[in-house]
Amino acid sequence: MIAAVRIGTNPKGKSTIINRLMKSNYMFTSCTEPRAKYGISHMVRGSIEFIWLTEETCGESLWSEVFKDYYEREHDEERGREIVLLANLHGDALDYPDQVEFLKQFSSCFLVYLMPGHKKDELESKISPKKTIYIYIDPKKSKVLDDQINTIDTVKLEMGETLQFAGNIESIESKYIDKRRQALSHLEREVSRLSMEESSKSRNKAILKRKELNNEGLKIDKEKDKKIRKEIKELWEEVDNKSLGIEHFFRELGHIYKIFISDSDENPRIISVNGPSKQNVLTLPEYYAELLISSNTIELLDGDSISINEAWLLAICNRIDKRFPKLRVFVISILGLQSSGKSTLLNALFACKFAVSVGRCTRGLFMRLLFLEKDLSDQLDVDAFILIDTEGLGAPENMDEIESEKKDRMLATFAMGISNLTIINVLGESMNELTEILQIAIVTMARLEKVGMSPDIIMVQHVSENNIAKLSEPEQKFRNALQRALKIVKEKDDEMGSQNLECLDIIDVRIKNGKLLKLFSPFKDGATVYSPPSKKYHKDVVSLYNSIIDDCENQKEKKNFSDWYKLIKSYWDAISHENFALRFKNITEINDFIELDKQITMMKGTIDIAFLTHKELIKEKIRSVTQKNFTSKDSKVINNDQIRVECHRLIENELNKFSRFKNQSHCEQSILIRNKLSNEHQKFIDKQLEKILKMRKQFSGRKDREQEANKIWELLYNEISMSSKNDNPTIDEKINNEVIEVYKNYDSYNFPEFWRSYLDRIIPDLSQISAYEFLDKIRNLRMSSVLDQNIITSFKEKINSMLDQNLDEIDHFHNGIVRNLRGEIDKILNELSVFWKLKLKTKFKMNVHVYALLNFIIKMVKIQNQWDKENTPLGVLNQKKDEYLKMIDIRLQYVHSHISEGHIAGDFFFLLRAIQKKAINAENCDRINFLRGNTWINSSKTIRLKYFIELAEQIHDNGDLNKGVLHFSGPRENIEKWFENKVNLDERTNKGQSYKETFDTEFEDVRQKIHNCKSYEDVKIFVNNYMTQVDGIEYQMNVKDNSITENFTLFREAIEKELDAEKELNIRGNGRYRLKNELLKKPSDDNLIMKNIGCTIPCPWCGSLCWGTRGHDKDPGISRKHFTSHQPPGLNGVSYEGTNKLTVQACHNILDETGVVICKVRKKWREYKNQDHPNWIFEPHSMRVINDIMRWFFQMLHKDIANYRDLKAADESELKKNSCFYNDYNNIISVLKQEFN
Which of 159, 914, 960, 1086 has its CA 20 to 30 A from that of 196? Predict the structure, then answer.
C-alpha cells in the first residue's frame, strides 16, 4: 500500500496532481473538479480515499512506466501477485496524526507532498524515513511529479504481510485503539462477506419475488398476491436468520454489560472463572464510545426486538459526554421506504459508510457522530452532526400487517422526534404510504410530552427527467396531507390529547413557504450497474448539503449532546406506550374515529330520549287497557289475570324489537295495582257513604262534611293499614330479617359482633381498619397493616359497582337479594386475597360486609320507597288522601249522583288534576330543555372544566386549600354532588311560564270539549280518555244512574261550574292548582341529565376520573375500558416506599419495569397494569388543559394532602422534573376558561 499525504497548502494540491496521473482527472476529490465551484467540502478533510492501482485506474504513463513492470514480475507461489492500493489522505497530515498513525501500520511507502514553505523534518518523527519519498511542490512548475515518479523503487511496494491486520503492528500501549479499529474492520468485513454468501440465495429469491409482486399488482388477484407476500416474508426471515452483522456482537456486549452492572458487589451472583472480570466489562462502553468518536456507525435502536438497551447506550453516551462536556449537536435523520436509497444519500452527503445493498439491509436505527471543522463549527454554532439512518419503511410483504405497520409508525415518530432535521427520501412518484406514516408521526409527536426538540423536514424525491413535469400534483397532495395532520392536532387538540403543538411550528412554516421539496436526478448516468456516477446527482447532493447547513445555522436553540442523549430513552418509552395515534393507519382514520365517537355519544342520547318517549306511549296504552276493563258495562267481575295477559301482549307486540325494555312489565304491573286499589277504595267509600246518607239526607255545613269525610278516611286508612301490616313488614324489617337468616350461621366471624356493627348504622372506614399481617424481617415480628389507599379506592369502587349492578334492574326488595350480595362480597374479598397474596384478617372481612350492607340499605330504601309509593296499598292510599277527602265532601254536599259526579269529574282532583299534571310535565320539560340549552351541561368535558375552574378559583382566590384536599380525598362523590346541586338550581327568568301557558291552554280546550258534549256517554268517553294521557290518576267515570242521562244538562253544568270556580280562584292567586316547587321533578333525578357527567370511576393508581361515557364499562369490546388524563398519583395519596413522600410521575410516564409495592407485595408496573387492572388504559389519552391544572393542583396542595394522609410532601426535584413547579396559574386558568367557552 502507498500512502499519499501532504504538509501545508497550495492552490494546486496533492489530489489535483495525483488525478493527472490517473485515468480520470476527477478520480480523487480535489479543488479542480466541477463541484469545487460550490466551495471546499467541509466533510472531506481528514478522510482517506482508497483506489487500486490497476490498468483500469492508472493513467497511461503511470501504468506503462511503473506498475506494468511491477505486475509482470515473477512472484513466489505462496504470496502470489499483490495489487497495489493507493491511500490518499485529504487535508494537512500534521492536523491528522491519528490517520497518519493508522496508515503507518499498513503502508509500504509514504509519498509526502511538501507544499511551499515546509520541510521534510516536520513529519519524519511520525513516520519511518526509510520508506518515505518526499515530493517538493513548486507552484512555478507545471510538471511536479514526472521527474520523481521514476525514483520510486517498486521493490518497496511489496506489502508482505501488511494486509494481514495483525502483522507489523507495533505492540505498545498507545496503539491499542488502532489495534481495536483494525481488528473491528477486519471482523466487520469478514462477517459481512460470510453473511452475504450464506444469505445470497434467499436474498436473490426475495428480490425476484418482490419484482413478481410488483408485476402482479397490475393484475388484481388477491389470493396470488397474498401467497407471494407470504413467500417474500419467509424468504426475508431466512435472510435474517443467516445474516450476522457487527451490531449483533455489540448487542451481546450490551447484554453482558447490563448483567454485570446489575450485579451487587456485596452479594455477587456472577462468578467469572475464565471469562472477563467485572472491571473489564465495565470498561466496554468506553471502547465503544471511541468508535463513535472516530466516526464509526453504532446501533441506536435494535430493529429485531424494537428496543433500546438503556444501560448500555447511556453508558456509551456518558463516556462521550465526559470527554466532550459541552458538545453542541445538530441531529439529522433520514426516513424512506425500503430500498429507496437512504443510506446511499447519507453516504453521499457526509462521506459516511452506512451499509447499502439491494433489498433490506438496515434494521432499526443507526447513528454516527460527525465532528465539524473549526471554521464550519464556528459558523453554525455546532460542534458535530449526529446522523441517524433508519430501517426502510413499508416493506411490501408486510402490507396490511397491523404490527408491522405500527412498527413503521413508531420508528418514523422516534426518528423525527429526536432530530432537528429529517430528510424524507422518496424514490419515484408514489408517496401515499410514506405520507400516511408521516401523518401519524406528526399526530403522535403532538401527543407526547415536550422534549425540547423542534423537528423540521425536507423531502428529497428521486425522479427521472421525464417525470419531473408530473410531480406538481403528488407534491401538492403530500403538502395537503401534512397540513391536514397539523390542522387536526391543533383544532382537535383535546380529542387528540395534544400536548406539544409547539414542536410542529417549523414544519408548518416550511410547508406554507413551499420549501418542502428537493428534486434529485438519478444516481447514475445510465441504467446499467457499470454506468458512471451522475454529475447532476452530485449537484443535487451539494444543493441539499447547503440547505442542511442553512437550516442548522438558522436553528434558534442549539442542544447539547448531554441533553439530547438523555431524552432518547424517555422519548422511546413514551412512543412505546402511545397506543392511540399509532394504532391508526392515517389521519383520515383518526378523524373518522373522533367523529364516530361523537356520533355514538349523540346517538346514545337520542336513543335514550326515544326510548323514554316510547315508554310513556306504552304506559298510556296500558292505562287505556286497564281503564277500559274497569269501566266496561259487561264486566261485573274484574278479571285481573285477563287484564295482565292483555297488557303483556301489548308490551310484547310494541317492544319485541327492543330487548332493553323486555323487562318493563313492571309498568303494567304498577298501573294494574293502582287501578285495582282505586277500585277497592271506591267500593269502601261508596259503602260508608251509603250508610251515612241513609241516616242523613244532606250535609249543608262545611264543617260537618269535613268531620264525616275525615271519619271515612280514618276507617279506610285503618282498614288498609291493618291488612298491610299483617301482610307486609317494613323495608328495614325485611332486610334485617334476611341479614339474620343469611349471616347467623356464617362461620367466618363472630355474629354478635357483626350484628352490633350492623345495627350501629355507621359505615366503617375501611382505610383505617387493619386488613392483614406481614413479617417485619428486621424485628422478626408479625405486624398488622391497613391496605394501601389506592387499593382501598379500587376495592370500594368494586363493591359499589357490584351494588349498582345488582340493583340496576331491581325495582323493589325481594327475598334472596342479601344472600346474593353475601356471595358477591365474598367473591370480591377472595379476589383481593388471592391477587395480592394476602391473608385478610377476619375483622376486616366482617367490616367489609358491614360496609357493603349499609351502603346497600341506603340504596335499597330509596328504591323501595319509590316502589311503595306507586305499588303498595298504603303508598297509593296516601297519594290519594286529598283526592278522596274532596270526593267524599262533594258527594255529601250534593247527594244526587248526577250533580256530585259532575263536580267530581270537573274538580281539581280529576280533570283539573289531569290538566295540572300536563302543566307540571311541561314545566319539567322546559326546565330540562333550559338545562340542555346550557352547552356546558351536555358534555362531560365542559362539566369537568367548569368544576375544576371553580375548584381552582376557590383555592387560588379564596385560599381554601381544604376544599381541594377534600375533593381529592373523594373525587367521584364530590363532583357528582356538585353537579346535582348545579342542575337543581333553577336559573330561568321565566319560571312557571310554561306551566301557566300549558294549564291555560289545556283548561280552555277541556272546558270547550265538555261544553260540546251532547250526552253523558260523550262526557264519559272524553273524560276517561283524557285521564289516560297522564300517569297517577285512576278516576273512571262509570256511574250507573239513569238520573244522569235524564238530567244531563245539570250534570254538564256541574262540571263547568267546578272548572269555572277554580279558574276564578286562580285569577285571584289562591287557586288549588297554582304551581308549587315541591310538585316539580328535580333535574338530578333525570337519568339523561346525570349521564352527561360521564363515567366518574377513578383510576386505581392516580385517582383521576375516567373520561368515558356513563355506563361505557358495560359496552362490548375496547370501548368498555376506562381511560383518563392521568394526574400526579400523589393527589390520590400514592407515596414512595420507605420515604412516604408523595409521588408525582403520572401513570403513562411510569416505565413498565418500574417496581411498585401494593400491600407489601412488590411487582412490576407492567403487571399492575395488565394483570391487576386490565379494564384500564394507562396511556396518555390526555387533555393538555386538564394535565396543566392537575399539575397546578398538586403544586398547591401536595403539602396539605401529605398532612391530611399522614404522609410527606413531594421533593422539589420531583416537582420540577414532572412540571409541578412554578406553574403560571393565570395562564392555566385563562386557557381553561377559553376551552370552557
Answer: 159
pTM exceeds 0.85: no
Pair 1199, 1209: CB distance under 8 Å: yes
CA 32 to CA 1021: how far, in whole Å? 112
Helices (H), 419-560: 432-447, 472-491, 493-496, 505-513, 535-554
What would the DSSP string read from start to end of 784-831? EEPPPHHHHHHHHHHHHHHHHHHHHT-SS--TTHHHHHHHHHHHHHHH
Cβ atoms of residues 127 and 108 within 8 Å: no
Please report the pLDDT score of residue 647 as a whole number.
64
Range with the largest mean pLDDT of 271-275, 710-714, 839-843, 844-848: 844-848
Distance CA 1003, CA 1011 (A): 12
Q: Which letter does DSSP use for residue 1221 in this model? A: S
Per-residue pLDDT tens over the stretch 629-660? 655 545 444 555 566 666 666 666 655 544 44
Any idea what the Cα angle at residue 869 is, between residues 1035 and 925, rounded to 5°? 75
* Per-residue CA distances from 935 to 506, 572, 942, 991, 1236 (Å): 36, 40, 8, 20, 10
For residue 1230, give the C-alpha cell: 385563562
Sign of the CA dihedral with 535 first, then 537, 539, and 541 last: negative
| CA dihedral sign, ordered 1120, 1126, 1130, 1131 | negative
Contact 1179, 1161 (CB under 8 A): no
Question: Cell numbers of 1199, please?
Answer: 403539602
Q: What is the SS3 assignment for 1017-1058?
A: HHHHHHHHHHHCCCCCCCCCCCCCCHHHHHCHHHHHHHHHHH
User: Could you tell me if 833 and 840 are in contact, meaning their C-beta atoms sit under 8 angstroms apart?
Assistant: yes
Which of the listed CATH numbers 3.40.50.300, 3.30.365.10, 3.40.50.12160, 3.40.50.10490 matches domain 326-585?
3.40.50.300
| 266-300: burial string, b at 16+ Cβ within 10 Å, e else | eeeeeeeeeeeeeeebeebbeebbbbbeebbbbbb
Is residue 136 classed as helix, strand or coil in its secondary structure? strand
Predicted local distance difference test score (pLDDT) of residue 167: 29
Average pLDDT over residues 908-926: 80
Question: Residue 745, SS3?
Answer: coil
CB-based contacts of 256, cutoff 8 Å, min separation 6: 276, 281, 284
**3-class SS of residue 693:** helix
CA dihedral 370, 372, 377, 383 (to 10 degrees): 40
| CB contact set of 586 (below 8 Å; sequence gap of 6+) | 435, 436, 439, 440
Q: List, in order, residues 6 or more apart from 257 with CB less than 8 Å away.
A: 281, 282, 284, 285, 311, 312, 315
Q: Is the dihedral of CA 821, 824, 828, 834 positive or negative?
A: positive
- As given in the structure block, the three cell numbers for residue 131 are 520508506
Q: Is 2 helix (H, G, I), strand (E, B) or coil?
A: strand
- With a CB cutoff of 8 Å and minimum separation 6, the contacts of 3 are 87, 89, 103, 104, 107, 109, 110, 111
Domain segments of the chain: what residues?
A: 2-167, 176-244, 326-585, 670-783+792-876, 877-934+988-1079, 1094-1236
CA–CA dist 336, 459 (Å, integer): 10
Instruction: Show the cell assigned to 351.
Output: 462521506
Region for residue 996 given its phi and psi (left: phi exceeds 0; alpha: psi -120 to 50; beta: otherwise): alpha
Q: pLDDT: is 319 or 781 the higher one?
A: 319
d(CA 256, CA 866): 70
Return the DSSP state at 217: T
The span from the first CA to the last CA of the chain, in angstroms, equals 77
- Structure confidence by residue, pLDDT tens digits, 581-595: 555 555 455 555 555
Residues 1103-1120, mean pLDDT to the nearest whole number: 81
Cell of 691: 250508610
